[in-house]
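Incident log entry.

Two folding requests arrived from the same account within the same minute. Monitoring flagged them as a possible duplicate submission, but the sequences differ. Recording both here for audit purposes.

Request one:
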Amino acid sequence: MSRGKCNATKPSHGQSQLLWSVSPQLVVTIIQFFEEARQITLISDGSVVYAEALWDHVTMDDQELGFKAGDVIEVVDATNKEWWWGRIMDSEGWFPASFVRLRVNQDEPMEEYLAHLEGAQAGEQSRAGLGLVLGPGLPCKEQMRTNVINEIMSTERDYIKHLKDICEGYIKQCRKRTDMFAEEQLRTIFGNIEDIYRFQRKFLKDLEKKFNKEQPHLSEIGCCFLEHQTDFQIYSEYCNNHPNACVQLSKLMKVNKYVFFFEACRLLQKMIDISLDGFLLTPVQKICKYPLQLAELLKYTNPQHRDYKDVEAALNAMKNVARLINERKRRLENIDKIAQWQSSIEDWEGEDVLSRSSDLIFSGELSKLSQPQAKSQQRMFFLFDHQMVYCKKDLLRRDMLYYKGRMDMDHMEVIDVEDGKEKDFNISVKNALKLRSLAGDQVHLLCAKKPEQKQRWLGAFADERIQVQHDRDTGFSLTEVQKKQAMFNACKSHPAGKPKAVTRPYYDFLLRQKHPSLPTALPQQQVFMLAEPKRKTSTFWHNIGRLTPFKK
């Protein structure tokens, strides 16, 4: 939320008008100012200090603490200014400090404390001072909604200016220099940003139609997000390509003529003093910003407001868009890990895992019986989308695996088997499930050691089918180039003739510490810093290490 600025001296009548645009949350900030340092000290002394979540923190990283807006979090460690360690019931983890606010009165939420101040029988001077900050004419909540609406419109207009500068200031000039840039190279650097620019101009035009200039708090903009929710998915392609763009641009910036050329483009277009890689990050930041802005808008929209239901639906829609983009990005980041995993398996046969799959869903050890031989075999199973691979452990080196086969999950049905006599194999079983091919020519009986393990496997098989259908609905797939590059990288890490090194996952070390390592990614609330956050370590190998008992 942007805040107005004023001089330290007593303002004139004209200057005082600036104070009316100051966020009402400044009241809370003033109250917090002297309390916050004291409370940080209390945390370090071991005292119990609570914070209230301002926004949802959705995470797929088990090092981080997920929560919903309004949740109360016990702050355990606040020594780092960006990431704090906290606890909600039995869950602990890191969370962005910018997503919460410390309670001034540790026995009640901030809103109640502010309401208490407003309702108190204070002197006229104190009441007038509070009214000055909140502004005249509008109740606090409506003034806050006005501020959020104005921020959304302002940032959207600024964003369009950035996109225009990139398309006309950089891409247009680059295309004139065929001696320096190939079209494929430009596609790698700029991705589909021209498509995004065209879409965002249309989106802003629709927002402007719904924007009430005279009374911004009456604006009804939620429907704009709902009408364009599928259009926002074009950001997925851009976000997935962004790491490749950074690599390509980094190579060019090592050559002086490209450095001078890009700087000349910036000056010619009269752009702000931000490097090209900073401009190229703005679409990634923008798609993450929408859920935060809509959450803030919903917070200050009365349920009776005509825009309430649309804003609520828009918030869920944009969260789903961001979740879809993050999921696709995670999948693409993991394909290198899958290729490396395959290269570590001895005696591999048949096509590569990446030829059909892109995500590890579950893994673990099961006893396997297959017809016609009903001999029980201990195997490690790895369930990917579309297929399941099973391997045998080395008798001496329990962390070494030998490929033994795979099952096509697109043509298998999963059957829950009751404890007792199993008719197909004519044996007594416990904690068992059965995989039968739709053609009826294959039947595999899998037995877990404990009932809860069996239930987790049944859930995993259901998740695999859901994910396959979701990928079909959203059109997600790997390109041949991505598959080949991942396998090429894996082969380079395991040159022919050299033994394959099998190492314990890095997270095994981290989880032995008092706290896992501090996340290196900037909290989402800082998305407009125009500096690329460091990428956090993938949890792929941690999942395998956690789910797979490589060592007994």
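Request two (distinct sequence, not a duplicate):
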Amino acid sequence: MEQHGIAAGGLNLGKYFLAKNLKKDIPASIVVFLVALPLCLGIALASGAPLFAGILTGIIGGIVVGSLSGSQLSVAGPAAGLTVIVLNAITTLGNYETFLLSMVIAGVFQIILGLVKAGTIANYFPSAVIEGMLAAIGIILILKQFPHAVGYDADFVGDEEFNQIDKNNTFSGIFSALAKINYGAVIISVVSIGLMIYWPKFKKVAGIPAALMVVLAGIGLSLLFNNTSFALRDKQFVHIPIVNSASEFFGLFKMADFGQIANKQVWITAFTIAIVASLETLLSLEAVDKIDPIKRVSPTNRELLAQGTGNIVSGLLGGLPMTAVIVRSSANVNAGARTKTSAVTHGILLLISLLFIPSLINLIPLSCLAAILLMTGYKLARISLFKHIWHKGLDQFIPFVVTIVAVVFTDLLIGVGIGMLVGVFYILRTNLRNPYFYHIEKNGDKKVIRIKLAEEVSFLNKAAIQVTLTSIPKESTVIIDGSNSRYIDQDVLEIINNYKHNAYTKGIIVQLQDIKPAYDVPKLKELRIKAN
């Protein structure tokens, strides 16, 4: 009887948490859906693919990848970073169906990467670089969405690269937008930002997502502006494909051309997509874990398996390559999502919008959706983040700033690569400077120098220890203390033993304390695993 009561209590508690999470996940899914919708269409357009392919990829990313992923907050979909690769690949391969075959193979490659545990590479991304990437994406969102917010839509929604396909760059695009302002779009954007800021403060209506109110207000204002000087042009609205029948819907799907399986270029394209998509996914996953309020750690290898499966399905049905996408994922986090229900539901909403309400969706102005992305960008690049990193010290702040500048002026992968180089430099610099604790004592007239080695002394510390030992004054007593050391590299042990052997020529007495003849590396790995 008592056990039954406990079981019932556990069941009720589970229902409580499920209901509590759904209250956050469902409104968040609406926000992600509204953010994803123009991004899916814009990336498809820029990739030279059918618009349907972009929506289809978002649906698969939400439902398939969202269900299989171990991440609770990451959202997958078509990635802006792959647009150039996709556009060039379609041209090189000759047709879209052959490109789809390369996507299927890329998905298989990603599954193999997941099975061989390649996802663990994410553990080596410096924290300052990931923080810099998040801030850079926020700045890019603000800079790139500003033209859409004022009614200038020459560049595709979702572009993240500095050089745009409309021949502008990020900054010249803003000046072009200022010269061609549509005041109707500006009013919609301002009202939308106001709603995003103030709507959640009204507790009685806080359950209704602010993003939904933004869309309703945008549609209402755009209809009000019809036949006035504030009227929006046709290209300033969402353009989702309208499907009039089941046969027309199924006619939108495309099949991969498996007859090109022996084409060498197909395999080269597949490998390129697999590597780039996997790197973007791992970077996004690491970034999402950084901003997760519950601080959960997502399984990276499982994510590669999920993404590989998603890309295989997308390739078989006629979609685009997908990754975990930081813009959608950060919008998901900022909207208050708690579990993967939000990502899956956003995929279902994309499907519903395509099948049942495309005409209604096409009434949504891009300027109100730009306002949602502007607010997302502001939260990612908030001033408090810069202050927080500054207080951590220059070894964190410099890689952080370099990453931001590099990402803004190039693209995500190149920018992060540059940030990684700077970050690794500072990590090596810190390791070189901190292999030991150096303490000088007095024993009468004689100096006693105690060198206490760190927990781990690698070959990177070899040069610093060599310089320290050779600079010790004559007629000293040196105690080299390894009591705290779990591991000392063999090269360092050799330097220490050689120094002890030759130090008598300078009148230096060397005492080794708790230093073993050799250290077992596998045992070190075991200790690290236990520590984690």
